[in-house]
Amino acid sequence: MQRSLLILGILLISLNLRPALASVGPLVESIRAAAGLSNTALGLLTTLPLLAFGVVSALTPLVTRRLGTEGALAAALSLIAAGALARVAPSTALLFGGTVVFGVGIALGNVLLPSLVKRDFPEHSGVMTSLYSSGIGIGAAVGAGATVPLAGTLGWRGALAAWAVPAAVALLVWLPQLRRDAPARAAYSVSASLRALGRSALAWQVALFMGFQSLTFYVALAWLPAFLQTRGFDPAAAGGLLALSQVMGVVGSAIVPAWAARQADQRRTICLLALMEGIALAGLAWPGAPMATVWVSVLGVVLGGTFGLALLLLVLRAADAETATELSGMAQSVGYLVAAAGPAVFGFLHDLTGGWAAPLVLLVLALAAKTAVGLRAGRPSQIHPDRQPRTNADRTS
Fold this sequence. Notes:
single chain, mainly alpha
């Protein structure tokens, strides 16, 4: 019963790690009209959480050593709920401020779920990674698909704030886990562990693979509806296609990690996903974007699959649960700082050129870089950081 409740809690946490973000894209035009924001500023609404991911992720081991893994995940859900709720206020400052707050909460959840899988489900890492990465995809799909109908009833601010409710429900379900958790008392300092990871070429390859796949994902999340509207789709249909991409992402994230975990070498999987992504981008770039539904679906499968694969690499390439936490923190910190540039730069290129050719070139370059580092990260190997014992100063920090 306790194990089933833990699995349910992991699934509910994963479902809350994307709706607050995915709800922005379908409402871009409504937000622009009401708040008078530029394309670059609108891109910043997606970029701010990624910056929070980049800053907070590397510091997550400090949080777990004070609150424990379960306590840190409870804090994550609380921040997601509070940040989403803040966006209901008629204030541009709170719109951006709430975005930062839930971004911090999502960052904690992003880092801790792989380490929780490594700790509690080491023999089922592929299946559990598929489960929670699929949950993340489902949450993104629901956020993208339900936001426009919610806005019709609650207004765009109410639609953004509504995602506080499922986070609060997940927190209530997660609270029983706090009784069995105690803060970790590691024998090594966080700074020493991060320095050791910083000397690992494999750790950097995993981090950059995470970054380039996230850059493309968040660009699609923020800008796919606006792009499709210029191809003749109305806002509801464009939002529906974004939701379709997220649904197909669930398919990719459900299949790819479980499949890749059965292989010692993940490079062939990376090559296949890269080929599919290139075809999808070419189809969408074609004048008029014929068969857009097909290309959006393929892109969704690829983005979900590469995301799930990136999460799986955090588990497979770490020698133990502590290393998984630290690698997850480092990889997601570096990765999301790379990804943070995506939506804003994409929007800037669109503002600068007035078209979509230059922004799409950005995605092609990201694909090439992702494939290059992925072929290195996909090789069978593990990271064993050469840590140094904690000092007295570390123990009191």
